Amino acid sequence: MRSYYERLGVLTCASNDDIRRAYRALALSAHPDKGGSRSEWGSIQEAYETLSSPEKRCLYDFMGAFAHLSERNWSQPGPQATSGDSYSAQPASRCGSASRLLGKRPAPSHAPNQQPGPGGPPCVDADVLVQLRLTLEELFTGCTKQLRLKRKLFLQVPGLGHDVATGSWAETEELFRIVVSPGAREGTRFSFAGKGNLLPGAAAAGSMVIVLHQQPHHHYTRRGSHLHVTCTVPLLTCLSGGSACISTLDGRTLLVPLGPNCLQPAAEHVIRGEGMPL
């Protein structure tokens, strides 16, 4: 069964705005009034109602896909990725309210990537997931980013074993350098082993994982390595066989000669070698 995030087509670290935009986009194609399936639309609505509510989303993230329907899964919390923006990564502190939702303390987990500790959120993952938002121009030309990101460390008192009751949480900050190659795709991951959260009893810290996310562009649409742009050309220019000017992502101007095909609505003209770098 697909998770709620998969139904909406978003990452687990998606913001409320990302979830809202995804839901609206699906409404244009999956709504029954638009020819979509009623059962599919019902599953999308169910996912949106859960993920758009901070408390319901916290409970879903902490307990797993069916935790909001049954309390028997408290002993099996699902993974919760931390999230952030271009300059900071915030641990999944929203999950700290999960136990308050049901008015009880969740049973401790023995999963290797989730172990609660005093003073720390109950669902901290070993891996820290950060979303790096880039413009289409930055992905086209390539760029270098320096991000100052935070992670959590569980400090154990020497000689007292790995009992979480004898340790404490600390937060540290580190600078990461990301070199994005020209033509990089959305979803590309940069992983730094040992730079994530250090959990109680773990021999090493998890990874800091930075995922590329492309911001919407006002002019171009990217489809794989191809760039699509829509030009509105006056009828007189089409009839006289003129040219259309297109501004490229790296600041150049292309002159596109208009032939007879441009008189057809939605006619396409392909300029080879002017897409995303390979």
Structural notes for this entry:
The protein has 278 residues and is an alpha+beta fold. Helices cover 22% and strands 25% of the residues. It is built from seven helices and eleven strands. It has helices spanning 4-8, 16-30, 38-51, 54-63, 98-102, 136-141, 235-240, and strands at residues 83-84, 89-90, 128-134, 143-156, 167-180, 189-193, 207-214, 220-223, 226-229, 243-247, 253-257. The strands form five sheets. It has a three-stranded mixed sheet. Strand 10 (243-247) and strand 11 (253-257) form a beta hairpin. Helix 2 (16-30) runs antiparallel to helix 3 (38-51). The longest helix has 15 residues, at 16-30. The two termini are 35 Å apart. Residues 65-122 have low confidence and may be disordered.
List keywords for this structure.
3-stranded mixed β-sheet, 11 strands, 7 helices, flat, two-stranded antiparallel sheet, 278 residues, alpha+beta, 25% strand
Write the layout of secondary structure elements.
Layout: H1 4-8, H2 16-30, H3 38-51, H4 54-63, E1 83-84, E2 89-90, H5 98-102, E3 128-134, H6 136-141, E4 143-156, E5 167-180, E6 189-193, E7 207-214, E8 220-223, E9 226-229, H7 235-240, E10 243-247, E11 253-257
Parallel strand pairs: 3-7
Antiparallel strand pairs: 1-2, 4-5, 6-7, 8-9, 10-11
Helix pairs in contact: 2-3
Shape: flat
Number of helices: 7
- Which sequence of SSEs, written as H and E, runs from N to C? HHHHEEHEHEEEEEEHEE
**Structural class, please?**
alpha+beta
Strand content: 25-35%
Instruction: Give the distance, in angstroms, between the N- and C-terminal Cα atoms.
Output: 35 Å
Poorly predicted ranges (pLDDT <50, ≥5 residues)? 65-122
Largest sheet: 3 strands, mixed
Q: Strands of the biggest beta sheet: in what spatial order?
A: 3-7-6
What is the total tally of β strands?
Answer: 11
What would you report as the Rg, rounded to the nearest angstrom? Answer: 24 Å
Relative helix content: 10-25%
Quaternary organization: single chain
Q: What is the residue-averaged pLDDT?
A: 75
